Every structure is written in C-alpha cells, then in structure tokens.
C-alpha cells in the first residue's frame, strides 16, 4: 500500500481526533509496532508497549483532551501539525499547550511521532514531570 498525501493526512487527523474519545485501542491503532514517540524535550520511547504505557498515563492523568489543529502540512508519508492541546486534569486544572507534531507514516501506520513543545510550560501548568 502506498502512503499518499491524503491517506497520511487522514491517519494523523484521525489519531489526533481520537484523543477526545479517550479509547486507548483506537489511539494506539494508528501506530506501527516498532514506532518511536518522542516528546522532544525528553527521551524518546521506542516500541508499542512503551507508547501504550505513556498514552495510558496521559489518559489516567486527564479527564478531557482535545488536540486542535491550527495548521497542517502533509505529503506522502509525512505530516506536520501545529496544534493547541487542551487538557482538563482530574483535579479540574486546565492546560493549554502550543505543540508542533511531526509524523512519519509508512504502510498507513505512524512510525515516528515527534512533538515539539515548551516542557517548562507543560510542567508549570500540569504540576507533572515528564
């Protein structure tokens, strides 16, 4: 299967939109088994088991998540999405975080997902350490 601009973009839009539904299986289904997820200020996570664990930790820490796309650029196998991520923590606290995600897609699965954001801003708003 060839990764077209359209299929790559749809995969990423669906993945980002899936956070509102909070279903871990739906969120993780976008990824290849050997994918790498890198919150760029911290160490990358390699492989689906680690990615699943960090996504579960996010779902456990927040009662609501909405990843709003501001600007999106795509080509075959590559998508760049500037976003504002909105999280509501279990204690009611709110986080508003500007993020840019870079997604590499192969065989209609995300193989690399790198998020660029201000770590200090996230930690200040959330009280969490990544």
UniProtKB/TrEMBL annotation:
Residues 9-122 form the Limonene-1,2-epoxide hydrolase domain. The keyword NAD does not apply. Keywords: Hydrolase. Gene3D superfamilies: 3.10.450.50. Coiled coil: none annotated. It comes from Panacagrimonas perspica. This is Limonene-1,2-epoxide hydrolase. It comes from the Bacteria. GO terms for molecular function: hydrolase activity. SUPFAM superfamilies: NTF2-like. The keyword Hydrolase applies.
